[in-house]
Design brief:
two-stranded antiparallel ribbon; 6-stranded parallel β-sheet; about 170 residues; about 25% helix; homodimer; alpha/beta; 4 helices
């Protein structure tokens, strides 16, 4: 079972930016990172007019695009899978999974918090929070490990010590 | 094992158009169609700036985009898989696989032939040809079943009788 960390935060809190930096930092450290992005409202991914796009538009339930170094798969599904099911169905070879866009889930979490949004925190201690990435010197809640959101090295250390020891 | 049919032909012979029509026709008949498109020179599939694109760009080896009705996966691979390996790795629930863009392969084939390209045929009888889709009344080679390329119903009948009996 590949370890899973869920990155949570309000819209515009900076989740994707943090994930980008974490992917790059952990990749430099030698780990293989997989990501899962959830879009409640659906998504478009292919380019209109491409052969694969035409296949899917014509009604194919699954379309695979293959090349010597990269493969893409687009498939219809019958339910809105959770993180665990997505990971077990689609991820076969990674050291850790970073997930974004899932509201309720039992996995360890990093919350990204931007003070200027003036909103409540999304997580409490019962939410399995492993790090709070903040944009200013808010007073760090008791029992929570706070990081400056730009301290990617520190956040990567935290993820590494919890989930990646012995993996590379 | 899901049956596989390989659609072959020179560039601009009309392969994708035929596949589109076949997907639509077979889907109307109640079958679940999967497709595999091979691009020797690689491909771009996601949209610049989207979260999933940013994940992959940052170095993720696998990126999954999930929604209630559709899932997409983009992953790095270490070799240029053949049709059979791609089908077994990525296609789990379909009645038939239509493959495009693979040169050498042992699977039953439909060749799409456009007279005006003035080229030789791509396949011979040893190539497991099940249908030749042509654009004019060329004289049909002995031992080959020829169809007008617009006779999608006839080509779908041929595919159905060979591979889909009892599947819906």
């Amino acid at each position: 079972m590949i370890p899973i960390v869920s990155i949570v935060g309000w819209s515009n809190s900076g989740k994707t930016t943090l994930i980008e930096k974490l992917i790059a930092e952990l990749t430099i450290r030698g780990y293989r990172i997989a990501t899962i992005k959830h879009n409640r409202h659906g998504f478009e991914i292919d380019h209109e007019g491409k052969d694969s796009w035409r296949h899917k538009q014509a009604g194919a339930v699954t379309t695979v695009v293959a090349s010597p170094r990269k493969v893409a798969v687009i498939e219809d599904v019958e339910s809105d899978y959770g993180i665990e099911e997505l990971a077990s169905r689609y991820i076969r070879d990674a050291d850790i999974v970073l997930a974004e866009g899932f509201k309720e889930n039992p996995f360890p979490k990093i919350e990204v918090y931007r003070t200027e949004l003036k909103r409540e925190r999304l997580t409490g201690q019962e939410d399995n929070l492993i790090a709070l990435a903040v944009d200013s010197t808010i007073s760090c809640p008791e029992g929570v490990l706070c990081f400056d959101r730009n301290d990617v090295s520190g956040i990567a250390d935290r993820v590494g010590e919890l989930f990646l020891s012995g993996r590379n």
